[in-house]
Design goal:
With about 550 residues, the protein is an all-beta fold. About 0% of the residues lie in helices and about 25% in strands. The strands form five sheets. Strands 1, 2, 13, 14, 17, 20, 21 and 22 form an eight-stranded antiparallel sheet that branches. A hairpin with a 5-residue loop joins strand 8 and strand 9. The longest helix has 7 residues. It is globular and about 75 Å long.
Length: about 550
């Protein structure tokens, strides 16, 4: 394992909060080195960073056009997908999506979602017809692709989103699990779905970490998302649950305390308070949570997230009369720029290392297949990208400016970043090497990429034993691609120990940043990397250090 200058590390977390309901009742040495701030990029220069493939756009729910299909291209003896995701456009999802001119007529009701809301017509005295939001469900479709409705919505309200639509393995898109007209109304908000294959053809997986309509309850929130709140006779809510966009639940940031204040939601006299958190995709496989929750049984709690993404927080209050009130809502944990996160269930016993090759560089990951202790100086890694530099070549430098201290000082090596005075770009916040970190995810940040800069993601299995990592790619705070999640778990990922040779390497994807004129990362184009001659599958090699 790799010896670390600092061993202390806190666990934090990413989380989402979605809607509300109220109810009653052994170590391997890698020598240290001094910190160095380089002033020039060095090595190869930027060239031709834009992809030559036709991008398969990430589907924004506003877009009701046919996304088409991309063609695969051969790159460095491995096939890369046509662009999995191009999320350069800002999310301008309307209250209701426009209907395709060729689709069937709108039908009454919410299809399968009527069961979730009780299929009860609103009382016009409490919810005037003029205030009611239509479902915009259309008649049953054999394929939403054939109807040119590949848009992240369940247009025919049959419980399936974008059935028959083309997607690429690992691609992520915004989605809504409810009648399309009810998206972003009341408690309802968009989730995310990932393109999966399993043992069959690639297709869109379930829409997760969002919220669809539920039965209306007396809690200060429009639970059934019909445009009216608490349309129940005699309703006088003791709790005020938040929905999407509520200023009481703003976006958070990795490595930053997120305040949970019970008094913001419950104004009565409480006997007990309880906070719970459900994490995102990495928390489903990590042996320990990727967050800390302080004060879980008090009125005010503090959640400290480590990763990006969407997580669920639930507040349960019992008042002095024994009444039980519950709110559940969604909050985004958002990091700027391009952020690559890697986690794996074997993280308490195995050492996997996350690498990111800089823009314009295509050199081997290691000068020799027999030496993992001297990785390429052009790739961000454990050796040259943390607060403490352990490699012999000094700190990696891709020519980017640093970020303010608040972007990294809350992380496990915050004290060391403070000594440096700023956060470098790129940087590795965590090296789960079984010494500095145990049971933790790893992540690499590039807060300020340039438009068109392309990076390659690679994971090296230093321990060599069988592992099943997941890699999530966030661009501009949005999940753009996810690789290794079930049912598409990586297999056969094992090889020689890193102390002997470079062993097993997984070349995951190429990521091209989309940055606007103001320098804000608005999305990425992600190209999955496949084995040579293959149009699908994960590209894993053994003792091959090539790019």
């Amino acid at each position: 394992m790799k010896q670390i200058a600092r061993a202390s590390r806190s666990l934090f977390a990413i989380f989402f909060l979605a809607g509300c309901t109220a109810a009653a009742g052994g170590t391997d040495d890698r020598s240290g080195g001094s910190q160095v701030r380089d002033t020039g990029r060095g090595g190869a220069s930027d060239s031709g960073l834009s992809d030559s493939t036709d991008p398969l756009d990430t589907i924004d729910p506003l877009d009701t056009t046919d996304p088409g299909s991309g063609s695969d291209t051969t790159t460095d003896d491995a096939l890369t997908d046509s662009a999995l995701s191009d999320s350069s456009a800002e999310d301008t999802t309307p209250d209701a999506p426009p209907l395709d001119v060729d689709s069937d007529a709108v039908i009454d009701g919410g299809g399968v979602y009527d069961d979730a809301t009780g299929d009860v017509a609103p009382n016009p005295d409490l919810c005037p017809v003029s205030a009611q939001v239509p479902t915009l469900c259309v008649a049953a479709l054999a394929s939403e692709d054939a109807a040119r409705l590949c848009d992240g919505y369940d247009n025919d309200c049959d419980g399936e989103i974008d059935e028959g639509c083309i997607c690429k393995l690992g691609e992520a898109q915004a989605c809504f699990a409810g009648p399309p007209g009810r998206a972003n109304v009341g408690a309802c908000e968009l989730g995310t779905q990932v393109c999966t294959a399993g043992t069959g053809a690639e297709h869109w997986g379930p829409c997760e970490r969002g919220r669809g309509p539920t039965t209306e309850v007396c809690d200060g929130l429009d639970n059934d998302c019909n445009g009216c709140t608490d349309e129940l006779f005699g309703c006088s809510p003791d709790v005020q649950c938040p929905g999407p966009g509520d200023p009481r639940v703003p976006d958070g940031r990795p490595f930053t305390d997120y305040a949970l204040r019970g008094g913001d939601f419950f104004g009565g006299t409480a006997r007990t308070w309880s906070w719970t958190v459900t994490g995102g995709p990495c928390d489903a496989i990590l042996p320990t949570p990727s967050y800390t929750l302080t004060g879980a049984n008090t009125q005010n709690a503090t959640l400290r997230p480590l990763l990006s993404g969407s997580y669920t927080v639930t507040l349960t209050v019992v008042d002095t009369d024994g009444g039980i009130f519950t709110c559940t809502w969604v909050v985004q944990i958002v990091g700027p720029g391009v952020r690559i996160e890697m986690c794996y269930p074997e993280s308490t016993t195995s050492d996997l290392d996350l690498y990111l090759m800089g823009p314009g560089f295509t050199n081997p990951w290691y000068p020799s297949r027999l030496d993992t202790f001297t990785p390429s100086p052009n790739a961000c890694s454990w050796a040259n990208c943390e607060a403490n530099i352990r490699g012999v070549d000094g700190r990696v430098n891709w020519g980017y400016p640093g970020s303010p201290l608040d972007a990294c000082v809350g992380g496990p090596l915050g004290a060391d970043w403070r000594l440096q005075g700023f956060c470098t770009n790129p940087r590795l916040d965590i090296d789960n090497n079984l010494s500095e970190g145990i049971g933790l995810p790893e992540n690499i940040n590039v807060d300020v990429p340039n438009n068109g800069d392309r990076f390659r993601v690679m994971v090296q299995n230093f321990t060599g034993t069988l592992a099943r990592p997941i890699v999530n790619i966030y661009c501009g705070g949005r999940l753009t691609a996810s690789f290794g999640t079930a049912p598409d778990t990586i297999t056969g990922y094992r090889g020689s120990r890193g102390s002997i040779s470079v062993g097993a390497m997984w070349r995951v994807a190429d990521v091209t940043a989309t940055v606007d004129a103001a320098g804000v990362t608005t999305g990425c184009v992600v190209n999955a990397i496949h084995p040579p001659g293959a149009a699908t599958g994960y590209y894993i090699t053994n003792d091959d250090p090539s790019f």
